[in-house]
Amino acid sequence: MSGTNFVYRNVMDHTAGEFTQVLYDDVTSDPTLPRTKSVHCAACGHGEAVFFQATARGEEGMTVLFVCANPSCGHRWRD
């Protein structure tokens, strides 16, 4: 994508007590999320994943979640 000058913005407005749900099918196409090539998917072996931080159900604190960048896979795991 060199030579392009796009700026992406992802705005989320929430009210107190509202939960954010991650739609895993959408995260691999979101250009605002970081990607890494330092992990390999255990399901398909693909060498790229999208990652982000979120709270896990029933747990306190944040955890790093990975989603395989292979469009035909979509396997999810956490660090």
From TrEMBL:
Name listed for the protein in its UniProt record: TFIIS-type domain-containing protein
Pfam families: Zn_ribbon_TFIIS
InterPro entries: Rpa12/Rpb9/Rpc10/TFS, Zn_ribbon_RPB9_C, Znf_TFIIS
Source organism of this protein record: Eragrostis curvula (weeping love grass)
Family designation: Belongs to the archaeal RpoM/eukaryotic RPA12/RPB9/RPC11 RNA polymerase family.
Gene Ontology terms describing biological process: maintenance of transcriptional fidelity during transcription elongation by RNA polymerase II; transcription initiation at RNA polymerase II promoter; transcription-coupled nucleotide-excision repair
Chief place of localization: nucleus
The TFIIS-type domain, residue ranges: 37-78
